[in-house]
Protein: LysE family translocator
Organism: Metasolibacillus meyeri
Amino acid sequence: MENFLLYLFMCIMLIILPGPDTAIVTKNTLLISKKAGLQTMAGTLCALMIHTSAAVLGLSAIIVKSAVAFSIIKYIGAIYLLYLGVKTLIAMTKRKPQLADAAPHKNDSKSSFTQGFLTNLLNPKVAVFFLTFLPQFLATNSDPLLPFFIMGITYTALTAAWFVGYIYLLHQIRAFMNKPSTQKVMEGVTGAVLILFGVKLALEKAN
């Protein structure tokens, strides 16, 4: 592996850029609970490890090179984001006033994990990232197996560190966000953002 410090820097820059994962984590942390945000993050991390394993095994290369496979995953991912966006907007119109310390539903954590997992797993751009970005840091003529795993785990660990800090920051301002009027605004914004990400993903073309 070459230029590992540069790899770390590039990973950090990519991780902090807002995307579908950040939108889902933000929504679930602010509108449900800190635990839901952490569960969403856990789902995202599990999906990243699957992408890492797929890159090592060469499955990501098939997705990247096959227009059909790329399109199938892309449209499934786009439909899922659109579904989450529309669902959030519908929830906004049906929301009733509630206490700031009201307990979340018992299924929220499971649902949050699934949302984080599927949002990341069904994004073919992540597979493209692993197959186009990671090889740039491989030493010439080296076996990619171990370096890919190391870089994938490193990226996942950095993602975890970023989201933990981000979630705890959001939790600190959640009392304000729990006001019914504020929640309606947040649901409207995050719902619209998820729909935009879904449309953007649907229009994405394979390289």
Confidence is low (pLDDT under 50) at residues 97-103. The chain has ten helices and no strands. Residues 28-80+107-181 form one domain. The first helix runs from residue 4 to 16.
